[in-house]
Amino acid sequence: MNALETNSEPIIRFVIFLLVLLVLLIFEIVNPRRRLYYSKKRRWLTNFALSVSNSIILSVLLPFVGIGAAVIIQKNGWGLFNLLDLADWFSIPLYLLLFDLIIYLQHRIFHKVNFLWKLHRMHHTDLDYDVSTGIRFHPLSILISSLVKLVLILALGPPVIAVLISEILLNATSMFNHSNWHIPKRLDAVLRLILVTPDVHRVHHSTNPDEHSNNFGFNFPWWDRLFGTYKAQPTMGHDSMQIGIEDFNDQRSIEFFPALAQPFNDKPTSNSALS
User: Residue 159's closest CA among 1, 10, 3?
Assistant: First the structure.
């Protein structure tokens, strides 16, 4: 990517974000998967406010994460890919695969380590499940995730375009697999062979500990199958299953400031969530 393309990267990502959001929102309205029980206005205001806050915090504290870091690393020839002089046709898909594996492993660690779980727990305490859930993350969780991505970029030295694709895919698939879109059963059966579909990831947001300890994948479903954390369907079915965390099932969870403060409050954390 040249300098002009690099400077336009935020615009490219934002436009794609809006397009994916709009398409998924239309699908949710036309063919919803589940009935939503809580105020969509309140939930969306909170979830989008969190997303905007995260973007501002990242731009201030870690302005060179992602594309900026990749440009610097490429100019200096750092990282394993540059050391091995890998061709782009090989290094781009390899990076996307390794990036997705790291996201999967990071996700599992966020469920295992108590402090990290408290940060990530806020994502799980959305009381309904739709496209906006895919952008609901605590700022500290986003900062830690960004540092993990920075370390990966430093270690591998991927092409700049690979980093851009990975960021776009991460945002798009997060909204996709959290969407309330009712994908036909036969189509879902095919898609879940190559993608984490909403029905696959929704299981991970169940209040049932045996279910939210599975299906950690974000883009590709292969890691869950490979590491034994795949569960095809929720026990109670998608229509009857409960979404969220039992200790945080009141409506304060869908308000902005209580959500921000949630990792630091005194409510007990279920040990089963850390399994």
Answer: 1
